[in-house]
Amino acid sequence: MTTELVVLDMAGTTVADDGLVVRAFTAAIGAVGVSEKDDRYEGMLKYVVDTMGQSKITVFRALLDDETQAQQANAAFEGAYGDLVRGGACTPIDGAEDVIRGLRKNGVKVAFTTGFAPATQLAILDALGWRDLADLALAPGDGVRGRPFPDLVLTAALRLEVTDVRRIAVVGDTASDVLCGRRAGASVVAGVLTGAGRREDLLEATHVLDSVRELPAVLGENR
């Protein structure tokens, strides 16, 4: 079945993370009084790593009982991550841009999705000069739930007028990305090993790839 839409995660899939999430998390949790020496820090950090790919405000709500603190931590996280990106600490996964340009040249639509806030997503796209690289960029908010809910994929399908969810391919580096793609009904749900996810985290994927560079071959087999 010919693929009409490829939905690509950003950090860890098309954009190298290089520890930026952990650095931003440390700043965020410090903003609500939890230092690296705090007994709670290691457990909180583990939860952040285990929930990579999910909406960050949802993660902070799970870590902090107080909604005000969760919002404060989330704002601090997005601010710290954005500063790192604007400071030049953001690089593309090798070959990702060529893959995206090749897909679009062949008539396949491409959507970027993320667990970050819209402003952070735009900061990443601007830092890489990718604002016009894909057909669409989506982030959680305005009634669109983050991963592992299927909303981001289904919203992309609606906005880009996909004829059948089975003609969608979803690519990400975490279990949340994979679950999101499965719940959305995509035929190809590929996990990549360039980010937070290990092979054992991606068992529900239809394919496990060393990198997004291998995606065109998978889509060729799926025709």
What is the overall number of helices?
9
Low-confidence segments, ≥5 residues, pLDDT <50? none
Strand percent estimate: 5-15%
Helix-strand pattern, N to C? EEHHHHEHEHEHEHEEH
Helix content: 40-55%
CATH H-level superfamily title of the largest domain: HAD superfamily/HAD-like
Q: What composes the largest sheet?
A: 6 strands, parallel
Estimate the global geometry from the Cα principal axes: globular
The CATH top-level class label of the largest domain: Alpha Beta
Kindly report the spatial arrangement of strands forming the biggest sheet: 5-4-1-6-7-8
CATH architecture group name of the largest domain: 3-Layer(aba) Sandwich
Structural class: alpha/beta
Question: What is the CA-CA span between the terminal residues?
Answer: 5 Å
CATH fold-level topology of the largest domain: Rossmann fold
Number of domains: 2
Mean pLDDT: 92
Structural features, described:
The protein has about 220 residues and is an alpha/beta fold. The protein has 2 domains: about 5-15 and about 90-220, HAD superfamily/HAD-like (Rossmann fold, 3-Layer(aba) Sandwich), CATH 3.40.50.1000; about 20-85. The chain contains 9 helices and 8 strands. The chain has helices at about 20-30, 40-50, 55-65, 65-85, 95-105, 120-130, 150-160, 175-185, 215-220, and strands at about 5-10, 15, 90, 110-115, 135-140, 170, 190, 205-210. The chain has a 6-stranded parallel beta sheet, with helices on both faces. Strands 2-3 form a two-stranded antiparallel ribbon.
Write a concise synopsis of the structure shown.
Helix content is 43%, strand content 13%. With 223 residues, it is α/β, with parallel strands linked by helices.
